[in-house]
Write a structure and sequence with these properties.
The chain is mostly helical. The chain is built from six helices and no strands. It has helices at about 10-15, 30-35, 40-50, 60-75, 80-90, 100-120.
Length: about 120
């Protein structure tokens, strides 16, 4: 998933570390741009719904369907939600499609990372 983002093998870790280790901090520039007042509350609403989704092979697709509906229902734009989730899960705005990241990390890890980001950032 990250191979095309790397020119050298040594770049693999910096472009994929979030698959193995949850972010301990968040990219400052991305944080200022993507995590606004009320974002933590939205993330908590999203987590509450994600917890109700069955933890199976379809979790990522079901979660993405929910998120698209949430964005539309709340008259938000994609960036307001998906980039905030990416920031919570990855620690930055880099990486492959969030659906692919969700498939690899799974329900529990996605929820855990969003929860931690909401608590740490708390806007």
């Amino acid at each position: 998933m990250v191979k095309e983002r790397c020119s050298f093998a040594r770049e693999l870790w910096e472009n994929s570390d979030y698959f193995f280790v949850a972010p301990q901090e968040y990219a400052e520039k991305a944080l200022k741009k993507r995590w606004k007042e009320g974002t933590s509350n939205r993330m908590n609403e999203i987590v509450a719904h994600l917890e109700t989704i069955e933890d199976n092979a379809d979790f990522a697709q079901t979660a993405e369907d929910f998120l698209m509906n949430y964005i539309q229902t709340n008259e938000l734009n994609m960036g307001q939600i998906m980039n905030s989730i990416r920031l919570a899960v990855v620690g930055d705005t880099k990486g492959p499609n969030m659906l692919d990241i969700m498939k690899v990390l799974g329900k529990q890890e996605i929820i855990k990372r969003i929860r931690i980001a909401s608590e740490k950032i708390n806007l």
